[in-house]
Amino acid sequence: MFSRIPSSTVAVLALLASVGTALPAGLLSGFKRDDALKFNFGNEKIRGVNLGGWFVLEPWITPSIFAATPDNVVDEYTFCQTLGQTEAKNRLESHWSSWITEGDFAEMKSMGLNFVRIPIGYWSVTPNNGDPYVQGAYDYLGNALDWAKANDIMVLIDLHGVPGSQNGFDNSGRRGGIGWQQGDSVTQTKNALNKIRDDHASHPAVAAIELVNEPMGPSLNMDELRQFYMDGWGNLKGSNVAVTFHDAFQGVTAWNDWGSGMWALLLDTHHYEVFDAGQLQMGIQDHVNSACGFGRQMASNNKWTIAGEWTGAMTDCAQWLNGRGIGARYDGTYNYNNQGSSYIGSCDGKYSGTVAGLGQADHNNIKAFIEAQMVAFEKAAGWIFWTWKNEAAPEWHFQNLTQAGLIPQPLGSMNQAVCG
Ligand SMILES: *[C@@H]1O[C@H](CO)[C@@H](O)[C@H](O)[C@H]1NC(C)=O
Asked: Tell me: the pLDDT tens digits for 287-327?
């Protein structure tokens, strides 16, 4: 890929070369900074997993943590608010110290993974006065970087929740409305990113920092979001990390005209085929074709582009996937925010449980879907699966899927022909 340099810069360079002018220092230092990135994004494929549900709770990843609380606890915010600081801290400490350990990193390495994306909430980095959240996850992040380094795995630190919530999803820490871009929330977000930069950007394992996960573009002020991305880039430039920005649900090809004058940009897009009735009705071949088409779009971009989240799932049946107490679109039980759903198929017992418990047809289809996505995403800069492990959602469990033979081993040994 030729995308490390913005096309506008290429044009300037060509012009300067044509008139025999010496290169200005700014452009030269830009190239040098590119060379100082810790991962060869242009040539090596990112093959990674997310460490979901570790530093930002999600009901469907660890249902046992939520089942031990009253029904009003739907996210980390209400978890801490309802249990109170002392009890919430006790339970979270025991989760942080056990959910992922150094042994997981060794196993990731043995499976051929070269990247982890680690979601973390602003409240763990630069807490706001008056928030109910408890602190402590940031210390475990520090441990994780050392474990990654010891196992030759690179890290993308992902700011997954920002003040007010950037998308209203439970995985932003707070389910409900979108309060980001109000008050001081954008400044607070930049402060959190600057602290992550100051504390961790120079760590040898930290190859990328993501400015904010899944900002809900259609509901946000996009001009302000673009300005935030530019400011965030400016604050991170020179730190030898790829500045990672999510496509904000604008479409993965919507960012080609953006980024003039910047470099070392990594575009993160998330590929799911389970949150829309049309996609949920598709058969396996349609899912495969859809993934292959998406990979071609990713590869057409002028910036390094990764699928920073994706899954083997073709239904939204996993318990609480759409939120605690919210049903599934697939079996017509989804009913949230004035949106209903119509029955497509039964979720009964089918997609909860374990990878080992999958029926043969599901096993084969999930395996085929995963392979196609890996082929598709490696046409671009690569992929980061969501997620390494969870308690009861087999199609979302990279560790067990690999052990059960549903993930190509060695990684990269896919049949390229599945994408035509
Ligand atoms: C993953 O594998 C472990 C160990 O065999 C098992 O205890 C667990 O239930 C599995 N989970 C899923 C979702 O497959």
From this structure: 999 999 999 999 999 999 999 999 999 999 999 999 999 99
Residue 222, domain CATH: 3.20.20.80
Buried b / exposed e along 66-77 (16+ C-beta atoms within 10 A): beebeeebbbbb
Residue 391's domain comprises 35-419
Nearest CA to ligand 1 atom 8: 354
Active site amino acids: 214, 309
Residues 103 and 28 in one domain: no
* Closest ligand 1 atom to Cα of 393: 13
User: 299-303, 327-331, 347-351, 358-362 — which is least confidently predicted?
Assistant: 347-351
Locate the ligand 1 atom nearest the alpha carbon of residue 397 and give its number: 13
Assessment of whether the complete model's pTM goes beyond 0.85 = yes
Q: What residue owns the CA closest to ligand 1's atom 1?
A: 400
- Number of folded domains in the chain? 2
Positive or negative CA dihedral for 216, 219, 223, 227?
negative
**Would you say 158 and 118 are in contact if contact means Cβ atoms under 8 Å apart?**
yes
C-alpha 354 to ligand 1 mean position (Å): 6
Q: Is 54 in the same domain as 196?
A: yes
Place of tokens 């400011």: 231
Measured CA to CA, the distance from residue 32 to residue 238 in angstroms comes to 10
Which of 107, 354, 388 best tests ligand 1's pocket when mutated (most atoms within 8 Å of CB)? 354
48 and 15 within one domain:
no
Q: Among 303, 328, 397, which Cα is nearest to 358's? A: 397
